[in-house]
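#struct-help
A.M.: can someone run this one for me? Single chain, 195 residues.
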Amino acid sequence: MNQPHPTGSSGHTRPADLAALMQQVERGDKQAFSALYDALAPMVFGIVVKVVRDRAQSEEVAQEVMIDLWRQAARYRPEAGSVTTWASTIAHRRAVDRVRSAQAAADREQAQAAREHHTAFDEVSEEVETRLASEQVRRCLRGLTELQRQAVTLAYYGGLTYREVAQTLRTPLPTIKTRMRDGLIRLRDCMGVTT
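D.P.: on it. Structure tokens below:
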């Protein structure tokens, strides 16, 4: 099948001749389709390129339109309008569909890129915050007494109860409770936590 040519002599075939060609195309006449193609391809291409604006894509869409005319020849109804009008309508719809499809694909790609960028940014940001918070906690823990630091570390990082901390450190339970309370107050103040 020939490629559509943007510079052709459209308009030289009379509407009655196009209608007769369309009837022959409906019956599967390939020569009639070739004549129809020559008569309509330039017009179809012109319509498509005005909507799509990309020459390569316009050529593809114009080719699809011409194939549609071959396949859908039985759907053409002369009482509904001329062959030219029917072909123009199909060309315009196909061109708009291509533009919408291309825009939807671009939107999906842009959204995906934004999600990937945002996810990467969130992960890096979260990692930085975690490291900064960990460094601040370590710095603040260094400001506690040895017993406070050991008690807080065992309770919060080791998951031990007050009683288990007291047993582990071989220190009376009331002393552990007092040291932990004082240690937590100092940690809170050091970290700038307000209540």
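A.M.: thanks! The CA atoms of residues 165 and 171 lie 8 Å apart.
D.P.: also worth noting: The two ends are 79 Å apart (CA to CA).
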